[in-house]
Design brief:
single chain, 257 residues, alpha/beta, eight-stranded mixed sheet, two-stranded antiparallel sheet, 18% strand, globular
Amino acid sequence: MNKISKDNFALALGGGAARGAFHLGVLHFCEQHNININAYSGSSIGSIIASSHASGVRAKEQLEIFTSKDLKKIFKFNYFRNGLFRIEQTSKIVEKLLPIKRLEELKKPVYICSYDLREKKLHYFEKGDILPLCLASSALIPLFRPIKYENMSLIDGGFFDNIPIKPLENKDYEIITIDLLPKREFTISKKFNPIKIFKRNFLKTLYENHSYSIKFSNHYLTSAHIRSFSLFTFKQLEDCFNLGFKEAQNHFLDIMK
């Protein structure tokens, strides 16, 4: 196991919807042990948490926002217009979560992963408007509509690179990936179930795409227990947060300088 430096530390935060509380638990551990984070990269919920933390919003503050009743109010039914839901971007709770407007105004680099449907191209944005780019990186179709941004039609980058370490490479960072969708083995059922087949094929593609990130990271952090947490409910955020903190503690206490 490599020694971890407190002075050259970068995080790649994977997508996984409500399981993002696990990221916050890891970040809380870093804050408590004065571990300096020099750069972030993220897909989906990972991009939101990365941008918020780089904006100065601490992990516990983010957790309070995600568990608040006000956050639930920003999700609006979209009447099936290119997605089931949309997000109210002018809400005060959104501004509290993402107080800085542009990526280049952050004191530390943040890379947001999103995919352009028009050009069929994956982007790692390091400049631009934080809120629409975070929403684009989290636009899981068909639940949310694609986000129009600078002549692009952007969707969730996690479809193609769920733990984006590539923008962090070749910069002398100690890269740590945090995986909210750890690999699991699927049993082959003799019964035809199209939903299970779709899920299995989707996850197979997902695992193939982020195997690169796992292989070339300095440290890889996840937990098999995270599979017990739902992707689309906010009822277990505290427990998921505590799991992230515990896994970070178990992984790093014996290797930190």
